[in-house]
Amino acid sequence: MDAQGRGQAGDIDPADQWVLNPSTGEYELRLTPSAPQSAVPGPRRAAPANAGAGRGRSAAPEREQERETHGVPGTSGQVPPPRRRRGVPEEEDPLPGRRRSRAPQKKKSKAKKVLLWTGGTMAFVLVAATTAGYLYVKHLEGNVTTTDVGTAGKAGFSKDEAFNILIIGTDKRTGAGNEKYGDAGSVGHADTTILLHVSKDRTNATALSIPRDLIVDVPDCPTIQKDGSERIIKGTQNVRFNTSLGQDERDPGCTMRTVKEVTGISPDHFMMADFNAVKTLTTAVGGVEVCVTRPINDKQSKLKLPAGKSTVEGEQALAFVRTRHSFGNQGDLDRIKVQQQFLGSLMRKMSSGNTLTNPAKLLELAEAATKALTVDTGLGKVSTLKDVALELKKVPPKNITFMTVPVIDNPADGVVRKTVIVNQVTGPEVFNAIANDVSFTAVKQQKAREAAAVAARLKGTKSAASDVRVRILNGGAVGGSAQETLNYLQNDEGVTKSENAGNASAELAKTTLEYAPDQADQARRLAEIMGLSGAAMKPGKSVTNTQGKPTMTLTLGKDFKGAGVSLTAPAKAPTVEGQSTADKVQCAS
Description:
By secondary structure, the chain is of the alpha/beta class. 29% of the residues lie in helices and 20% in strands.
């Protein structure tokens, strides 16, 4: 509320509403009290007989004396001094414990008046800035579109854990000027998909591209309807990956579930963008530098570029990432390489000093990003998106690896490069490295030391399989895993002193083996059989099995992939053909 509404501004100099508090040394806003207030301690002298005349009030000393003697009910017998009209001098009250000078009070100096005005103005600016900031954040949140993917993603974002974000670019022709792009009848398929894994210690990240023409099985997908109800969309087998979104009204949660089906890696969140995102983001940062080895004049995408380096934004940037027929073998796999080079350049531009130190660019970028994105409800707040951005900023560009799912031509096609399937030799190695937070680039030596310490736990003598006693609990694996593991251990590995102990009291992300110190030999033997890493081994205590014997406890976590499937994290990630890092400038060919 302004001064006119609060303090009868016509009778008050606004500068006089800001006064110095001698106790704190700060200027504070003093308004006309709306209720009786207690008096300031210390003696109070009666006002001179003529003191009220200049204020348009009665100057009768008897009435003043009466008010000071009898006071007002509910007060300490004194009332605040009356306010004056602008330009009329008055005596100031002495500070507590001091006597008032009898010398005539001089008019406030111009310097003091300026100081009071400055204090009031500064306070107003601070309040206005804080309010504007809050309102702007709420405005940005209004830009963001969210989709509830239910159990396909996490409810919140943790800054203390590794995280996986599925980045989806659709081919839906939404937005002005996009009518000429993509399939005219597209419902918004997953045209470009990248699984971004950011390591727990933020030393590295991996951006894994998933080809749209990869043949997969799309699982049944529970989707949340507008009325809050759940609808199960039936899965389909041997179809292109891009149909995991849009087809049969599938939402991004269906794409997240498909990625887990293919790779074994669970995306925590998703971010989805359409054609407009590329145009608005590149414009907001002032263009992105790209490089081509020869002149490009693509009739399909309308991309025209000279050989060498160019800066693209808006329509031209969209044309660059959509171009397929002018690069490589004119297939989707070569287009993916071009898109990865483009994203690396965009990352470098967004983290450059020219962007981060330019408030206008940052505001424009915030507007563009929030308007361009659809995210899951776990990322729906601007504060959460800010947290994600700050965590990503910690990763050095040289340790952000771009790669594509290792694939081979689909033998069922009979046509080369029509569709592809996962290379079952190298693909699982890549998925395992990502799932176990293993970097594809050289990172801190500390990680190597930690890996060596963990590996040391596996060294030493090992018991015979027939001497291993273990009870098996299901702590987050799929139903029936404990019994499956029991059958495997007893029938295939000779661990006959094992038993199924049912479900654990709580779910675990990782499989663990707890054992007492005198069971270390047994633990090493079981770890070898199960393919457990040193990190999975937890020295602790034993329990008593149904035969009254001390036994170890194997708890199958969410990472359990099936009996006989190794859970050992690789010490080093495999090298993937065509992988690159975000700090490298590359030219598309």
